[in-house]
């Protein structure tokens, strides 16, 4: 017998995930399939910090009462989709001062030119020419602070945020170069392009709740009747065959993608199931599947939201835990850049 001993190796530390979502109203089915559902799944493999990015929401003028309500509602919805505030950290960005503290130092290490190149800044300033505020411009710096303050390894974001993640890496790398190793360089965790849910009214556009056509998006809180109506009106084509071909049949392909995301089927299986059936039957089946899948989330949401005290308690604990982690980074950064610390 060999003398070799098998010592159980310690479990490797889990990688850390951070992500945020802005409290700008009820999330859509697209937000759910593209982000929130994955946030819940990622909890099995990572240490997760999930944040309601209320400070980022200020870059667009908001009714204060609506922002406050949306923030609490979004936190309740995150709990309803399965975010576990015991094992992970759920908090509101403005409750953790370290984000804005770090953002200032990072802003002083970010060039005007690189912020000017951000496509979201260019798009948003074109869209709101009356309110091109400095917060809109420095938005990516705050987002970099959100990520770097926790030394997050992975950041799940949509395609539209990949440029912001890149600049966060650039800022981190540059800071490390000047002041010595400080920040972890975060990696993006971007869902495949095909995972994007498109507008039901115009499948060439992403599903968005700011679309003036209310039938083009499904909100997570839409009831079954509304969901059935919206899918019934979804734009398809005149070919009448349920087949996936995003270029030639974007509407049908989008509906198939939504259906497959809930049933776990491949596109081929969906095609086979609806072979010889018309779009009417197909749309009704998609709508039923979506409504049935959302029903338990909606029930949980109503239950949780009815208990404001619970939601606020979760957020208070989350902010304390997040602040402990983030505070360490800010102290380290303040020391490195030469801000006087009293002991
Ligand atoms: N800017 C992100 C969005 O609009 C939200 C966000 C803020 C975020 N801070 C973040 C996402 C940090 C990931 C990491 O979608």
Describe this structure in words.
With 343 residues, the chain is mainly alpha-helical. Helix content is 52%, strand content 6%. The chain has 13 helices and 5 strands. It has helices at residues 29-42, 54-57, 64-80, 98-107, 112-116, 119-127, 134-148, 162-179, 224-232, 250-263, 267-273, 279-305, 308-337, and strands spanning 16-21, 47-52, 89-92, 154-156, 187-189. The strands form 2 sheets. A 3-stranded parallel beta sheet has the order 1-2-3. Strand 4 (154-156), helix 8 (162-179) and strand 5 form a beta-alpha-beta unit. The termini are far apart. The mean pLDDT is 95. Residues 18-22, 53, 56, 143, 146-147, 155, 157, 161 line the site of tryptophan. Tryptophan binds at residues 18-22, 53, 56, 143, 146-147, 155, 157, 161.
